[in-house]
Recover the amino acids of this structure.
């Protein structure tokens, strides 16, 4: 049934709800006409469709702006979360070259600036404080997600220990040092190798320095007749057969006694020393590193193979 619209009258159908919005937008009132007229009915439909499309466009724009603001806020938070600390600074300002513990390599830091004592296994590391690559270590950052800024020195691979069932390991004692002062050599025979073959192993030994005046400088505690161990005042590079160690060392030496007793190594560990040789390739030597000495009356001559024999 057709009816005539009156000017200024607003009907419920004249409001179009915007998508995603709670605000209703009224449609402008049209002049009075008969809705049953075909041409006028066509204009009413076109006007209504345009209004709906315009409302949808406004809704989509508002939704896109909210999403863009959310993404920008999230990216800002992520950038703040993943911002790495600057550990390297230029120009380089380096402290004196450190004196590292025995067996610890002196390497250049991750910034390419200064010499440092390389980080060892299971110690913290970062971009500047690098691990000891001479021992096959690298900085594992996997536990520091998502920053990946601080890690732990770990080994590239753990080689399993394979025990040969048919190989009974036999090892002779180390021979006495070939020199009573300065760097000498001691050796032993062992089959502790992959082929279970008896082979001779050699290592360096350093019982006492050859400085003539060290006995005068060395002070024995009051009331004592012996000083089992001592160290020189300064660390120094080791020299052996014309080759010089890359690092400086401060070895522990066996001391002296006021009576006829002599001091010999009691406990020691094995370290590896790398030497640079003129006009030759660098070489590595195993070396006995003394940790304690004992003073006793039996003083064997290192060069005498029959010093332990006794007449019946």
């Amino acid at each position: 049934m057709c009816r005539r619209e009156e000017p200024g009258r607003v009907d419920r159908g004249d409001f179009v709800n915007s998508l995603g919005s709670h605000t209703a937008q009224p449609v402008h009132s049209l002049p009075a006409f008969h809705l049953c007229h075909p041409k006028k009915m066509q204009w009413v439909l076109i006007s209504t469709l345009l209004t709906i499309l315009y409302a949808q466009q406004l809704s989509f724009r508002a939704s896109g702006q909210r999403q863009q603001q959310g993404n920008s806020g999230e990216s800002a938070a992520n950038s703040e979360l993943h911002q790495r600390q600057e550990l390297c600074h230029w120009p380089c300002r380096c402290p004196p070259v450190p004196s590292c513990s025995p067996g610890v390599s002196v390497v250049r830091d991750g910034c390419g600036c200064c010499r440092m004592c390389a980080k060892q296994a299971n110690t913290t590391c970062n971009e500047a404080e690098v691990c000891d690559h001479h021992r096959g270590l690298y900085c594992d950052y996997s536990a520091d997600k998502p920053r990946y800024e601080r890690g732990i020195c770990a080994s590239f691979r753990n080689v399993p220990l394979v025990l040969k069932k048919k190989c009974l390991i036999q090892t002779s004692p180390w021979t006495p040092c070939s020199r009573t002062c300065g760097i000498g050599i001691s050796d032993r025979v062992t089959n502790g190798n992959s082929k279970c073959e008896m082979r001779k192993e050699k290592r360096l030994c350093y019982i006492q320095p050859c400085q003539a005046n060290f006995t005068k400088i060395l002070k024995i505690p009051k009331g004592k007749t012996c000083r089992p161990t001592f160290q020189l005042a300064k660390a120094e590079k080791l020299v052996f057969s014309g080759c010089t160690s890359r690092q400086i060392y401060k070895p522990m030496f066996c001391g002296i006694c006021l009576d006829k007793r002599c001091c010999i190594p009691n406990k020691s560990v094995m370290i590896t020393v790398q030497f640079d040789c003129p006009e030759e390739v660098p070489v590595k030597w195993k070396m006995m590193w003394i940790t304690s000495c004992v003073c006793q009356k039996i003083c064997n001559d290192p060069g005498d193979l029959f010093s332990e024999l006794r007449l019946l």
